[in-house]
Amino acid sequence: MARRITQVQQETGGGGGTYEDPYDQPCFATWSHYDSQQSGFFCYTHRLDKHSITYGASNHYGTYQPYSSCAPELLQDNSGTGYYQTHNHVNSHNDYPSMTCNVGYLGHQYMKRVGTNSSSAGWNLQTRGMNYMSHAFTAVNPIVNETKQDWAWFSDDTNNGRTRCYFTSRSSENYRMMSHWQGRSRGTWVDIPCKWSNSALGSSCYNRKLQKIVVMEQNGGSYTFRPVIWHGVPNLRAISLNENHFYDKTDQYSAYGRDNSNLKEHFEASNSAGAVAFNSSLGYTEYDNWTGKPYNNSYEDQYRCAPVLCDNGKVVTFQMLPHSGAWVHRWNENGQSEGNRRHYSGTTSYGRDQGQRWGMRWQVTSDGRYLCAYCPYYYYGSGWLGAFIRVSDGKWLWDQNTDTSYGFQVCPIGKSSFLMGHMYNTDSGYGMYHNMVQLDQQFAERSDGDRLSPNLFGDYEHSSIETAYHSTSYPALIPAMYNTHAFTTQVEGGRGTTEGEAKQTEFTTYT
Amino acid sequence: MALKYYLYRKDPSCIIDQDEEVIPTKQHPDGVTGDDPNFIVIRQDLDPAVPLTSWKLNAAGNAFEDIHAGKSDEERVALNLAESEAILFAGMKDDKRGQIKAEAKAFLEEIEWKVERAKEEDLLNGNNAAMTAVANEKKAIRDANNAKEAALDAIPSTDIASMIAFQPKEF
Lengths: 511, 171
Description:
heterodimer; A: 4-stranded antiparallel beta sheet; 29 strands; globular; B: 3-stranded antiparallel beta sheet; 15% strand; elongated
């Protein structure tokens, strides 16, 4: 049976309203599959209780049938293929579901995600669908200081005049519909003028609390990036979830032009206002070019990076460097380059240059206060290199694993934590190996630029997260969709992220 | 260069962590039998110009050796990829054999209803012609299974591209 978010009328206390148990929501599902034998999804809550299952085999062991003509067609088309199969670990291969780069803000690029009200633990895509969804994973722009993480924005091309941004729900499929089928003429997109050079892919960041975005511009593929901060940005969530960038305009008989949306008019007004100081509410601020890039390779590090616009004006970027690992760069609050903060040494690895299924990904904690950007270490999906960035001040920590055989899949858990799935063999009753990091504690106890300690890879928990297949299996982790806002509204005493709230207090109601 | 601690996994072999601080030994996941024998912590001064993927445990099991010593960077990458692909090849071969068998099993199950019909037809006709036909149909599936497995076995172990392209369900 499906579990539902627990919601009861609050009868005591100062705030009234209802109580929702944020930890009772789905956090992630595991996936295992081997040919005609057992397959399926087991979903767990944020306290690692069981949420729901979808489980079966060819034509027995339950009602979920992943193989033969007994199976629905999407499953049958791919059952036993490298996209589904968890009988082998990633190594240098480029398909298996346990690849590090398969998970991101949008979930798992091969699988259907669990939602808060889902009654089953997941579902599959056909191979074509998997590849369609991957496009969104490489184009999605970071969002920070946002407690309502039910929307997403995307940038998916390079252009010497504008950065085209699409706004929709947190869905790779909705984005695909908009960008692929509607984008050339319709869809909720807006063009932000380039102020220095060319646009990049998925390389902008919206800070909800600041009401600013940073748009990273790159110099036509010559490996240099520069942040441009745009001030006083309207509520992008509202535009995304109203599914219409004219949503706040008056209905009229005559047609609006694409440039007549309030959002577009805001960027035009900002463009006209020109270069201004960081604390302005209209206009833009250009930072310095980055410096100290340790290696140049190809598309991935020509056109992509994950920036975080921090509350104090610092900007921190993480970028995968195919064949050379990754690096972290930071700008100070005055827009000056602080240079290379860390070069994660690497070996043979591939990013988007080899296809949209590979490369750097990012995820954000439920409260929006920490962003984790990461990429594989070895070939397409083995090992893990990543940075954790605190949005309030740009302090950052790192972690890594130079494994050449296994993938590692991360997802947010709880209020401000991440769970790392170690995609080792689940056989002999160990289930999915995993570890967690509580970032408030880590950032309090470690200095800027330190490694996590304890790190996410030295030790692990096991024998409590079940996966579907009996015997050898290297599972996948599928991050769930849930009400992230509940972790802010329903947890007393945390640090606030909403505009104007320095610190969250008991029974505070956020809107 | 400086001494560093490295955490090495023997199977599948690779250095999975490195640190200037002491790396603790890896506990066996069963929690009762002490250190996991599949892992070892080595403290050594490794040449940073040599990629981590070239360092393997020596025969004595107490230090790293550069198994690609004397090779160019390109040769190191090629050798490492070949090692990786050998593991992949074996795994894929196992998977695809499983898929061949699963497909044959599914075909056989799909015609199982014909057995009951054939028995009744033979009873009415006073012969075994219908059962013979069903038996021949099942034999053809098993023969196709065997032929497919033979084709799988015929792929040279160095030909990872053919192994990836091999379609186990098409028979």
